[in-house]
Amino acid sequence: MTSTEPGIEIQKAIERFLETSQKPILCEPGEESLAITPENFVVDVRGKYAQLQAWDSKRNLVRRVSAIERQAPGKLVLKVTRFGKLQGTLELIDRRRAVRDNVPLRSARLGFREQFRLFLRRQFPSYKLAELTTEADLEHSLSPAYPRALLRQGASAWAAVGVAADAGHPDGVLTFGLIWLDYLRQREPSLAIHGLILYLPVGAQKTTCLRLLFLDPAAAQYSAFAYDEDGLEARIDLRDCGNLDTHLAPCRFSLRHPVAGLPGLETIERSDGELSYSLHGLDFRRKSRSQLVELSRLRSPEAVDRRNPLYLRNPEAWLESQVRAHIQEIDASLLAAPIYGQVPAFAAADRGVLDLLAIDTSGRLAVLELKASEDVHLPLQALDYWMRVLWHLERREFQAKNYFPGRQPRPEPPRLLLVSPALDFHSSNERVLRYFSLQIPVERLGVGLEWRKELKVMYRS
After folding, report:
1. How many CB atoms neighbour CB 16 within 10 A?
2. What are the tens digits of pLDDT across the range 291-322?
3. How far is Cα 32 from Cα 241, in angstroms, rounded to an integer?
4. Domain finish residue from 184, 214, 240
5. CB atoms inside a 10 Å sphere around CB 360
6. Does pTM top 0.85 for this prediction?
7. Around Cβ 173, how many Cβ atoms within 10 Å?
8. Are residues 123 and 160 in the same domain?
9. Could you list the residue range(s) of the whole structural domain that residue 141 is in?
């Protein structure tokens, strides 16, 4: 084997890819994509490496390729060295195949990344775009779904994040934006990173802008822009974003009665006169005694078969039933009744989080957000519910609609209690909570792993 063979193999792999590609482009993290034609691309062998060169009217790119890192339909990932011995990756992508097969979501992300780049250059021409990426960073919980950037002007800087119009979960942008901001502040201690710039599609900006109103302005500054389908953006005035989609129905409290001899089973007498059962939070219609016994055996903390669908179904509802039954283990000042679930109502997708509203002995309201598994979005989802409780509290609607009869809710902002198994708080939750307004008294409560058997708070933070 000669020393030139690795370089020759790399060259052949690149040439084969280009021969079978209909619309090849070259993509490098942090740079604009570059369309490749036979007239603007050369690859040759330099010993055990291959060297490629590509150019257009704006730039000339030369990279030494040391290996083929990964091959996939429509994509070739190259391990490269820049001048200065900086290591990295470079991708060759067939855009025609990407569109036809609808496979590489990454290609769409790269396209939006370039739109994001243009936006930042238009709005912040005096700042240098020091970094722009859609690369995943699992160690720091940074999602590839949202392009992120660092803008610099001397020692002054801003973090920036954007969300594409066709993104599946546009409301997740603020979570990852705050994580990015916090990460940059730790990584770049010499920079004064003032805050976060957000780039949002028109029609999907409301939730994010409402959340921004409840973040601490002393911790960071925020600037939000909305863009239309033509790619034209305008700054959002957050003062115009204060109206909430929320509704507080008159109180219709359900009465719960434990069923003797079957732990975890309750009959629920609803305000409309209907009667149903709940077994560790799982609701169902009336059944025979023998059926109830069998269900109770399968959905039990002592169940032998923990893979049974009845045992696994809706763990948040099971956690809710435990919290309701042992509310004073969560906080000794909270009253055992009444405890309301899912009020107030608001237009939102399935959040995967259960909400409870309680009151303490002094009359202060407490919002409890329950999540039985790790969720990076828990803090901001909890904020969505908390801000609506505050809205109705400030308008004295809880008293007017007969909630907490015989008690007068105090006007102070409600407490916010995040309840989850101790090992299932996402590592980034605390980082996001750093940016909450100081008027929101937040407490994280981690319950023991065997919370189905015994609800026990292991730590409070």
Report:
1. 12
2. 777 788 888 888 888 888 888 888 998 999 99
3. 34
4. 240
5. 16
6. no
7. 27
8. yes
9. 105-240
Among candidate residues 389, 388, 369, 387, the one with its CA nearest the CA of residue 429: 369
Counted domains in the chain: 3
* E strand or H helix at 268: strand 265-269
CA R_g for the chain: 28
Question: Of the candidates 136, 213, 214, which has an alpha carbon nearest to the alpha carbon of residue 180?
Answer: 136
Coil, strand or helix: which one is 324?
Answer: helix
For residues 439 and 416, the answer to whether their CB atoms sit within 8 Å is: no
> Measured on CA atoms in the order 113, 116, 122, 123, is the torsion positive or negative?
negative
Q: What is the pLDDT of residues 371-386, one digit of tens each?
A: 998 899 999 999 999 9
Residue 436 domain-assigned?
yes
Take residue 361 and report the two structure tokens written for it.
């002995």
If asked whether residues 71 and 117 sit together in one domain, one would say no
Out of 240, 274, 295, pick the residue that ends a domain.
Answer: 240
Long-range contacts of residues 179-184, Cβ cutoff 8 Å, at least 24 apart: 179/140, 179/141, 179/142, 179/376, 179/428, 179/431, 179/432, 180/142, 180/148, 181/220, 181/435, 182/431, 182/432, 182/434, 182/435, 183/140, 183/142, 184/150, 184/157, 184/159
